[in-house]
Amino acid sequence: MVIEYPEGATPIDPDELEGLKFKHVTTREELDHLEQGNIQDGLVWLQRSKETDILNEGFVRELHKRLFGDVWNWAGTFRQTEKSIGIDPIQISVQLRILLDDARYWVENDTYEPLELAVRFHHRLVYIHLFPNGNGRHARIMADALLMKVLKRDPIDWTAGYDLQEMNERREQYILALRAADAGDIEPLMHFISAE
Ligand SMILES: Nc1ncnc2c1ncn2[C@@H]1O[C@H](COP(=O)(O)OP(=O)(O)OP(=O)(O)O)[C@@H](O)[C@H]1O
Ligand SMILES: [Mg+2]
């Protein structure tokens, strides 16, 4: 299979490709299509789920499995390889626990406005880069789940009419805003998600 990636995407390495459940896939378009169908089913599961206790490792992994588990056999399991984005894989579970503790604390203490809380959570989650792939999509949906199920707000309009998976001006803005957040400035990401 020939896969071309947009900037800021994590290339899938050969071991991880082994985990593809559909052996006939030959193009990125086919793969995108399969993943998109799986994500739709995952979103239906999320909508129907009454669970509000989502800031825990079990839920974070289950959500990834629901979004990608029909396509990839490693869905819901943490990455074991180094990527160009993300922390050392042996640090993942500890850093996730710290993030989830922080997020619960922010919720209990109203540390940030709901949108800023969700955006900060999103950035920290993609920064850790829990899984071999699907981190951007999972972390956007996780931030929306936090808004809807815990903070009782509307989800974020991440795409604003663009396809965020492809290289276009919106994705470019998104990746730049994440890099600014990596450097400690959350403003560009707040601007990115606020309706203009
Ligand atoms: N500098 C960065 N700092 C933090 N996060 C980043 C940075 N660059 C990219 N990311 C995040 O990593 C994601 C790409 O990782 P990955 O390929 O695992 O996710 P994906 O869901 O397959 O991608 P996509 O967002 O294209 O759907 C980006 O969407 C973005 O959320
Ligand atoms: Mg990807």
Question: What does this entry look like structurally?
Answer:
This protein is an all-alpha fold and 196 residues long. The protein has eight helices and no strands. The chain has helices at 14-17, 28-48, 57-68, 92-109, 114-128, 135-150, 169-182, 187-193. α4 packs antiparallel against α5 (114-128) and α5 packs antiparallel against α6 (135-150). The mean pLDDT is 95. Bound molecules: adenosine-5'-triphosphate and magnesium ion.
> Rounded to an integer, what's the Rg over CA atoms?
16 Å
Hetero groups: adenosine-5'-triphosphate, magnesium ion
Envelope shape: globular
Which regions contain 5 or more consecutive residues with pLDDT less than 50?
A: none
- The number of helices is 8
Q: CATH topology, which one?
A: Fic-like fold
Beta-strand fraction estimate: under 5%
Structural class: mainly alpha
Oligomeric form: single chain
Helix content: 40-55%
Kindly give the count of domains: 1
The CA-CA distance between the termini, in Å, is 39 Å
CATH architectural category: Orthogonal Bundle
CATH homologous superfamily (4th level) name: Fido-like domain
Strand segment tally: 0
Main beta sheet, described? none
Spell the H/E element sequence: HHHHHHHH
Task: Determine and state the CATH class.
Answer: Mainly Alpha
Average of the residue pLDDT scores: 95
